[in-house]
Structure formats: structure tokens, C-alpha cells
Design a protein that fits this description.
mainly alpha, transmembrane helix, DUF2306 domain-containing protein, membrane, transmembrane, 78% helix
């Protein structure tokens, strides 16, 4: 990547990650208050933040993190710290979709009165984001056994960088204006499509 393109993607990744952390802390405070005080309004506010703020920031952070790995020599499996961040990210997605989101909706709509599991899941999300931030700064451990000594990455096309920067905005408009609920369509297509394209290109250039 050119320095200017990389700086833009890194900037968006850092801003969205910090925002994700701040909203996760707000979610933790609201769910804790709702659990202690039995205040349904706290859960309603937590669901509002989750659907209209946190999820957009999380999707942006995940997209830019994946694309930074895909568009640079970091890759996904060359360094332990990158691989661990990738595994944690996939785990966070499954926990949010299967556990945190549905339980929060039930509490906000009065179908549940209390749910300690939601509080635990939110706390784990905060800790996971903090640990990923440490990994990004410290970059601990050596390269994995899958890392080649020489690893040439084709420069990403301009459209890939442009889509990485604009997909979060397009998804936000799609969710808030068209569907009325989160719909990370452009982020998902970008995060899956480009790494697959790069993998195919590398497989054709480098013998297995």
C-alpha cells in the first residue's frame, strides 16, 4: 500500500476501535445498572446504542482490521498476534450475534427481567477489545510456522482502498435509511471478497 492509503485505513481502524471500546463501556454501565436496579429503561438505552452506534463502529473496526491484513504483508497467518486478533474478532462476532444482541432485545422489550449472562458477555467484549489493543501495540511473539521467508504481496487496487473507506458509510446509510436495522452488506462483501481475490492471486504466483 502507498503510505497515504495505509495511513487513512489505519486512522479509520484506530478511530472506530476506540469508539467501539467507548460504546462497549457504555453498554457495560447500562446493563449493570439495569441488572442492579431492575431498570428496563437502561436496557432500552443499551439496545439503542448497540444497534445504532456500537455495531457500526464494530463493523468498521473489523473491516479495516481485516483489510489491513489483506492489503499488506502482515497477512492473516504469518504472525501470532495477528492470528490471535483474527480469532478473537470471529469469536466476538458470534457472541454478539448469537448471545448479546438477542438477550439485550429481550430485556429491552420486557421478555426478560434479568440476565447475568448478558453482563458477563459485555464485560468479556470490553476485555477482548482491550487485549486486542495491547496486541496491536506490543506485537508479541514470533512468526508462525506458516510464514514464508519471502512474501511478496501484490499492491491493492485503488478500488479496494476506496471501498474499505466508504463501505462503513454505505452500510450506515443502508441500515439507518433503508432497512432500519444493522445490515453490513458492503463491509461483508469487501472483507470476504478481497482476501479471497488476493489468495487466488498469490496461489497462482507462488508454488504450494
Amino acid at each position: 500500500m502507498t503510505p497515504s492509503s495505509r495511513d487513512l485505513v489505519v486512522w479509520l481502524h484506530v478511530v472506530s476501535s476506540v469508539g467501539w471500546m467507548s460504546q462497549a463501556l457504555a453498554l457495560l454501565a447500562l446493563t449493570f445498572h439495569g441488572w442492579v436496579a431492575g431498570d428496563r429503561g437502561a436496557y432500552e438505552m443499551a439496545e439503542l446504542l448497540d444497534n445504532h452506534v456500537l455495531l457500526h463502529l464494530a463493523n468498521t473496526s473489523i473491516l479495516t482490521g481485516i483489510m489491513l491484513s489483506a492489503m499488506t504483508r502482515w497477512g492473516f497467518f504469518r504472525h501470532w498476534w495477528v492470528l490471535i486478533k483474527f480469532v478473537i474478532t470471529l469469536t466476538q462476532l458470534h457472541v454478539a450475534i448469537l448471545l448479546l444482541g438477542p438477550r439485550l432485545t429481550d430485556l429491552a422489550e420486557g421478555r426478560r427481567e434479568s440476565d447475568p449472562a448478558l453482563l458477563v458477555a459485555t464485560l468479556l467484549m470490553v476485555l477482548a477489545i482491550a487485549f486486542q489493543a495491547w496486541l496491536s501495540v506490543a506485537k508479541p511473539w514470533k512468526r508462525t510456522s506458516w510464514a514464508r521467508a519471502r512474501f511478496d504481496v501484490p499492491p491493492p487496487p485503488r478500488w479496494a482502498v476506496a471501498l474499505t473507506l466508504t463501505a462503513p458509510v454505505l452500510d450506515y446509510l443502508l441500515a439507518e435509511v433503508v432497512f432500519g436495522h444493522p445490515a453490513p452488506l458492503f463491509a461483508a462483501l469487501t472483507a470476504v471478497g478481497y482476501p479471497v481475490r488476493r489468495g487466488v492471486r498469490l496461489a497462482r504466483r507462488v508454488p504450494a
